[in-house]
Structure of Putative tyrosine-protein phosphatase OCA1:
Amino acid sequence: MNAWDPITEEVVLEASELILTPKNHPMIVMCNLGRHRTGTIVGCLRKLQRWNLTSIFEEYRRYAGPKVRVLNEQFIELFDTDLVRVPIDHPKWL
């Protein structure tokens, strides 16, 4: 995946499934620079945790710094959390 390619719903769903499976813990979630793809995936997880969008975007912007991508924020806002398969034994933080 090229760092400039937009993240896809498929990638976020696959990452979410891995992150939400306790047998995979502990884990670290990161991309090449730890900003855009990581921030988008974490933003979608925050949405799944029912954070409000203002808080999600504030966290994303804090880590993206001056290189915020509005398309990533739009992706998070439009992401359908109903598509995420949440395991029965999901982590307590969810």
Q: What stands out?
A: The chain has one domain: 9-79. Residues 19 and 27 are 8 Å apart (CA to CA). Helices lie at 9-19, 36-48, 53-64, 70-78. The domain at 9-79 is CATH 3.90.190.10 (Protein-Tyrosine Phosphatase; Chain A).
